[in-house]
Design brief:
- The protein is mostly helical.
- The chain has 26 helices and 5 strands.
- α5 packs across α6, α15 crosses α21 and α17 runs parallel beside α22.
- A hairpin with a 7-residue loop joins β3 and β4.
- The chain has a 3-stranded antiparallel β-sheet. It has a two-stranded antiparallel ribbon with strand order 1-2.
């Protein structure tokens, strides 16, 4: 893409605005009709919601995607006739949108609009078009608010009646307060409100003139992930790497004014290391964390106790490992990096032994888990923590069983394929823990065959997998998958069972340690334990087939596991209703949009 591409003309910007306005107005017409037909909320409430949303988007269009309701903005809205309750609603909505990452527009959508008018989607054009797009969305919402209770006549004006539209779209580009990014100085994903560029004293010779490849941090990260996804990175590893690269990029943009690898300096790495010293230990566990600004993260850290700040040694070292790989990837791409740029020396020493870190849950706590409503009977499929008469066979039910009796890792059982179960024409039904189309394995040693424990069989696992297969699913636990999400299946499982796990004081991974420790205390040989858990020492375990002799060894070993599930009654296989009906996950974006539209 040429750095000298022409900027959007006023005529092109007007076309983008009008197109976006028409598209949004048409969608809102449909949503409004459906809402009125449902009658769940009155038109006055619906109108207030659309008006608050419309005002929020017009504020974002005017003041950038990090805008909040300042005292001056509140005064302006009040002078325009907006009630205090409306302004309060706009304030709360902007905060919520910022935390959930909904204040900006899709770069893909903006690019499509820009290309429609025959322009190039340069960073500057994307930044300008975004303001027009947000303004169009705001005006469409304001028009929708005014239309509640009005006659359902076709909209005839290009600007919805009843809106508070005051600034012509031309003012977006001509406003003297608007800072248009220089395409030669920023990455392709720059939006309104980006961090300022380096001071001239820090500026380096123009890389394009030197003939070097100009790569943004996000581009280099994407290349590294692309390479590793073909090798040994699991979905979980890729997700961890993406989060770390995104945090690094966010920090550099917002606090250091850096958006490309050529501009990175050792001082930036030092400051990022200092951020890791104060970042909350819990950072990254909430989906909302990736939408926080660095300033938000620092404020959150300040509210924490000292012992709750600073990443743990293992987590910090994971950051350093991935970022070291990022530098190596940039170098391999022909990007000229600053001399002596390195993360060497920033790794944290870990004085704890592995056995000290892997806390083994008490036996009583493990037993308490299997007395939870998930296993004894819950109220409904989406109220699994409330006691009731229903037992649903799903990942939340069988996952902890597989972790307890077989030491499976979370992603290993969450990503099972129905063909991974071998139960026909064999003496001992067993699971093949192998890479499949849904997930990889942690390492080559993880590949193994596991003869199923008698409790897994008694409680209906084989019958459950057969029922899922007959419904046409390939995933053993299809409820963990959504077509609109790239998150590992284990993340959804974690969300479902974490209340039960927290109540019992341990995690599914700690059940794995309980499995290993129980077998160790029972005298099971280390080699058998390694085979069962997928460790296999330093090299790949010699492939073992499930013949009668080896099956007997496995069965003798896992028979030493205590059976806290013996008190559970076997129940008729009950599939989650929306799985049985072959519907989209109710929590998926597609299902929510479909529900709102119909």
């Amino acid at each position: 893409m040429s750095a000298n591409a022409p900027a959007l003309s006023q005529q092109q910007l007007e076309v983008i605005f009008q197109q976006a306005l028409r598209d949004h107005a048409r969608k809102l017409d449909t949503i409004r009709a459906m809402d009125l037909r449902d009658g769940l909320r009155g038109p006055d409430i619906l109108a207030e919601e659309d008006r608050a949303a419309g005002l929020a988007y017009t504020v974002l269009a005017r003041r950038g995607t990090s805008a909040t309701i300042t005292p001056a903005e509140r005064e302006r809205l009040s002078a325009a006739g907006e009630a205090d309750t409306t302004i309060d609603a706009v304030t709360a909505l902007l905060d919520e949108m910022r935390l959930s990452g909904q204040t900006g527009a899709s770069v893909g959508r903006l690019t499509a609009l820009i290309e429609t008018v025959g322009a190039l989607a340069t960073p500057a054009n994307v930044a300008i078009a975004e303001r027009a797009y947000l303004q169009a969305l705001g005006e469409a919402l304001l028009g929708s608010a005014a239309a509640y209770g009005a006659d359902p006549l076709p909209r005839t004006a290009s600007i919805p009646q009843g809106s508070n539209y005051t600034a012509p779209v031309a003012a977006i580009a001509l406003d003297s307060s608007t800072v248009v990014p220089d395409p030669s100085k920023v990455g392709r994903d720059v939006m309104v409100g980006a961090a300022p560029q380096r001071l001239e004293a820090d500026a380096q010779p123009d890389e394009a003139e030197r003939g070097d490849y100009i790569g943004t941090i996000t581009e280099v990260a994407a290349e590294l992930i692309r390479r590793k996804s073909k090798e040994d990175w699991t979905a979980k590893t890729q997700s961890q790497a993406e989060m770390i690269f995104e945090l690094f990029d966010r920090f550099l943009r917002q606090e250091r004014g850096v958006d490309r690898m050529q501009s990175l300096r050792q001082a930036d790495i030092v400051e990022f290391d200092r951020l890791l010293d104060v970042i909350p230990k819990s950072f990254g566990k909430s989906p909302k964390d990736k939408f926080l600004t660095i300033a938000d993260i620092r404020r959150s850290a300040e509210a924490k106790k000292p012992e709750e700040r600073g990443l743990a040694a293992g987590t910090r070292n994971r950051h350093i490992t991935f970022l070291t790989m990022l530098l190596a990837t940039a170098d391999s791409m022909g990007i000229r990096l600053a001399d002596k740029l390195s993360f060497k020396g920033f790794r944290a020493s870990n004085r704890k032994r592995a056995r000290d870190e892997k806390r083994i849950p008490p036996e009583g706590n493990v037993g308490a888990l299997f007395r939870h409503p998930i296993f004894t009977g819950c109220r409904d499929w989406n109220h699994i923590n409330d006691e009731g008469p229903l037992v649903f066979h799903r990942a939340a039910y069988f996952g902890p069983l597989l972790a307890h009796y077989h030491g499976l890792r979370r992603e290993e059982f969450c990503g099972l394929h129905v063909d991974d179960l071998v139960s026909r024409e064999v003496a001992f039904p067993y699971l093949k823990i192998v890479p499949n189309s849904f997930r990889r394995l942690k390492n080559p040693q993880s590949k193994r065959d596991l003869v199923l424990h008698s409790e897994i069989l008694r409680l209906g696992f084989v019958e459950y997998v057969q029922a899922v297969r007959e419904l046409g699913y390939q995933r053993v636990f299809p409820e963990l998958f959504s077509p609109s999400s790239r998150s590992p299946s284990g993340d959804r499982f974690y969300d479902e069972v974490s209340p039960a796990m927290q109540a019992c004081g341990f995690t599914t991974h700690q059940i794995r340690h309980f499995f290993n420790n129980t077998l160790k205390q029972a005298g099971v040989h280390a080699e058998i334990r390694e085979d069962l858990m997928g460790h296999g020492g330093e090299t790949e375990t010699t492939e073992r087939y499930v013949d009668a002799a080896y099956a007997a060894l496995q069965l003798a070993a896992i028979a030493k596991m205590r059976t806290p599930t013996s008190v559970l009654e076997r129940t008729e296989i009950r599939i989650i209703p929306w799985i049985a009906a072959k519907q989209l996950p109710p929590w998926s974006k597609a299902a929510k949009l479909s529900s709102k539209a119909g």
